[in-house]
Amino acid sequence: MSAIQTRPTLTAPAAHRPGWALGAAVTGAAVTAAAGGAFALPDLPTGGTSVAMTHYMELLATNQPWNLLMFMAVPVVLAETVAITELAILFRRDAEPWVKALSRWAGIIGGLYFLVVFGYLLVNAAIPLTTGGGWRGPVDVIAVGGYLSGAVPLFGIALLELRVLGRGLTDTTRLKWHAAFVGLFLVVAHIAMIFGMLDPTLFGYHTPGHTGMNM
């Protein structure tokens, strides 16, 4: 009886993966290059002139820390609470009841709160600046307009939670609307931040006189 010979099983070579040492070396080199470049770059001259601020930044910078808390911290924290709890619900449909309750009440309070902020700034800032010609160039309009437009998605979330909007939606569809509203708020909020931090004089605004908001 002849012995049965078996051929060795040929396996494809495993794909080469860089080890942790290579990753650490690349990361270290990138950090070193970034830090060296930051220290090597010369300081940009300002000419001794003060930088003009948009009304968005002026609002947050005055009456510290209350304006920053009322107009930035509170609405952003509530919106991020909705976003984080929504992710937990999306990944685990059987999430704890307190997670769903926190998401619901953060959405309701955030929407109603920002609606009050919207009305206050519209009456005390946007309308007077428009009628009085007090805008500081296009970036000023974009920054304030982007901030105020955040009322639409936040109030939309509140209407969803109160079952005023999308009363016949399924839970899955309501989560999709939630995610869309949260994403829209983050987009307009970051537009407001980016344009609000710019110097209006870079885009043609001249400073004949100071026209601050009376808050």
From TrEMBL:
Tell me the InterPro entries matching this sequence.
DUF6803
A Pfam family recorded for this sequence: DUF6803
Residue ranges crossing the lipid bilayer per the database entry = 20-41, 66-90, 102-122, 142-165, 177-198
Coiled-coil region(s):
none
Keywords, in A-Z order: Membrane, Transmembrane, Transmembrane helix
Protein name (record): DUF6803 family protein
Organism (species): Planomonospora corallina
